[in-house]
Every structure is written in C-alpha cells, then in structure tokens.
Amino acid sequence: MKKNESKPTGVFKIKFSVTIVLLCVAVYVLCAVGIGVSVWRIVRFGVKEFSDVLKYPFLILVCLLCIVLVTSILIKSQYAVDDKYFISQYGLVKSKFLIKDITSITLDTESKKLTVNFGEQFMVLSVSPDFSEPLVRALLAVKPDIDYGFTLAENKPTGEDENKK
Fold first, then answer.
1. For a designed S-S bond to 153, which of 18, 48, 110, 138 qualifies (C-beta 3.0 to 4.6 A apart)?
2. What pLDDT, in 10s, does the model give residues 54-93?
3. pLDDT score for 161
C-alpha cells in the first residue's frame, strides 16, 4: 500500500439481483461453450488456414477475458469509505469521490436506494438494506455536516379502497 493511501474504514458489498447472477452464469456457460468449440475445432480439423490461426485463439482469448471480467465484478463490487474518499468499485473499475464534496444523502424508503449528492451531481447507490445505515454512518463520521434525509412511500390505494369510491 502506498504511503499517502489510507485504509478503508468501512467496506459495503453490493448485493446483486437474481437476474444479474443468472446473467453472469449465462456468460460463464457461453464462454465455456466458446472455448470448448474452439479447442474441439482445432483438435478435430487442425489449423489449415491463416484465418484459423487468428479465429480460434482469438475466440478463446475473448472468452477468458469475459470470464475474468465477470468474476472480478462478482467478487469485488463494493463501496468503501476511508478518511478522505468515498470509493465505488465494480470489478476492475474503481472511482474515488472526495467526501468533502458530498452535500447530502437521501434514502428512498420505497426502492431502498441511497442518493448521494455532490452539489449539482448525484449518484444512486444500490446497497443492501442492511448496509445503507452503516454506510451513511461511515460517511457522517468523516463529514458530520452532510444533510441526511429519507423519502416516505406514498400510500397507494388498494383494490378495496377503489371499489368504495
């Protein structure tokens, strides 16, 4: 670790929906099929043309790259808070935001998502409901003057209420 880099005080894992997990499994299956077919074609038919030299190894390489990207996203998707930065990481992609620039945080009670405002800019966070409060507390510990609020869900009429009107 670098000298000027501080250790995160809080790490909050991103919770993926079932759909996203199923899509990741589909990527794994397609990549395995792509690698298997490429290896089978090389073994069965050999490499006779120059296009075969480019085609099959390239397909294997692309499949391996997809496997690495999806695995990194599943393993290392998180939000982290240290004494200076709010860090958003999705696999190999990492973004740092200065905590001193955060003006307010709003919890949408209906969708269970946090909106972090940086003046005119904002970012919507998809965090497990168990982690939303600890994440806000970690940010408030670094900068106590962040305005924290929440939205209330509207009362939606039920079928019985509509029939009475």
1. 110
2. 888 899 999 999 999 999 999 999 989 988 999 999 999 9
3. 52
CATH for 1-153 (2.30.29.30, 1.25.40.20, 3.90.1720.10, 3.40.140.20): 2.30.29.30
Which residue has tokens 């709003």? 106
